[in-house]
Design a protein that fits this description.
- There is one protein chain.
- It contains twelve helices and 14 strands.
- With 326 residues, the protein is of the alpha/beta class.
- It folds into two domains: 18-245, P-loop containing nucleotide triphosphate hydrolases (Rossmann fold); 250-305, no CATH class.
- The strands form three sheets. Strands 6-7-8-3-9-10 form a six-stranded mixed beta sheet, with helices on both faces. Strands 2-1-4-5 form a four-stranded antiparallel beta sheet, covered by helices on one side.
- The protein is globular, with a radius of gyration of 25 Å.
- It starts with a helix and ends in a 7-residue tail after the last helix.
Length: 326
């Protein structure tokens, strides 16, 4: 409903609060012995992420995902354009108290225990030790690490999955409003990915804003409200799953038996595969089921048909003639 309609009906217009926004953001790195070679990493990237939203940034290796994330965090300075994070300009130190960050390959002092790492992170944020003693057990429970292991085990003894979990815990030690995650599922086994996904969903239920990069597109599709696709530093697509992949109003059906000539009227691309008639339904499912009973057919499956996020990603990359990254 637009504002004009709301005015006529005297209904309040609910405006979404902006968590971060970029305007024509660009970054060029200089390389070479004389620093005279220019390597563009971001090219006029403009996007908006709203408060309480889970936003996924997709792209091949070298697409500029980490550069964009680090620019928003103030780690990298942009070459052009501007951006705001939680209402403040880039580099504003006052907002960093409200931000959490998990890098792709977090490095910690490996002679410390997990508990000591979280104490150290809490001290950096100026969190009182009395509050830390309450906060740390909550975080360890959230990320699935036992308190006994976190207190006694040095990080050099941690697996990749355990390091990711303790990294997530330190990113949340200050109870941030906005969380940046760089490849949070990287290197995790299926169980670890599932647990990390559940953590992100838990943060989402708390109203946190989450901005993350990932190569695991199936996970992105399950948990993100919106996604953006970067290719060679350019933003080539942005939107919700419905906006990018379609409304999924078409159905793919598998049928056993029935009469092919009648089935073809409902399924124009009818094919016989492993003894089953398959294809995309044209018409209302309920009407088709009634017709199927009359021709003594049996419905085996009916699924909403739309491309997956992975298929969309590959098609967008191929359409621009971009080669697969190494």
């Amino acid at each position: 409903m637009d504002s004009a309609v709301a005015t006529r009906l005297q209904l309040p217009v609910i405006e979404r609060l902006i968590a971060l926004q970029t305007y024509e953001l660009g970054k060029i790195y200089r390389t070479g012995f004389w620093m005279n070679k220019k390597v563009p990493s971001l090219n006029s990237v403009s996007l908006t992420v709203y408060e309480g939203e889970t936003f996924g940034l997709l792209g091949q290796n070298g697409a500029g995902k980490t550069t964009l994330l680090k620019t928003l965090l103030g780690i990298v300075r942009p070459s052009s354009g501007r951006a705001t994070v939680l209402g403040a300009s880039l580099g504003d130190r006052t907002v960093k108290q409200r931000i959490g960050y998990l890098p792709e390959n977090p490095y910690f002092y490996d002679y410390l225990t997990g508990w000591e790492v979280l104490n150290f992170a809490g001290d950096l944020f100026g969190i009182e030790r009395s509050q830390q003693r309450k906060r740390i057990p909550e975080l360890l429970d959230l990320v699935g690490l036992a308190q006994s292991a976190a207190k006694k085990k040095q990080l050099r003894q941690y697996s990749k999955g355990m390091l990711q979990r303790i990294g997530m815990a330190q990113a949340l030690i200050n109870n941030p409003d906005l969380v940046f995650l760089d490849e949070p599922m990287s290197g995790l086994d299926p169980l670890g990915r599932y647990q990390m996904r559940e953590i992100i969903l838990s943060l989402k239920s708390q109203g946190k804003t989450i901005f993350f990069n990932s190569h695991v597109l199936s996970d992105v599709e399950k948990i993100c409200d919106r996604v953006a696709l970067l290719a060679k530093g350019e933003l080539i697509a942005i939107g919700s799953m419905q906006e990018l992949l379609g409304t999924a109003e078409q159905y793919h059906v598998s049928v056993k038996g029935g009469k092919p000539e009648m089935l073809h009227q409902w399924i124009p691309d009818l094919e016989l595969q492993d003894g089953l008639w398959t294809g995309h339904l044209q018409g209302e499912p309920q009407d088709f089921l009634g017709s199927l009973r009359l021709m003594n057919g049996q419905l085996i499956s009916i699924d909403l048909a739309r491309p997956s996020l992975e298929e969309f990603f590959v098609n967008q990359i191929r359409a621009r003639g971009i080669q697969a990254s190494s």
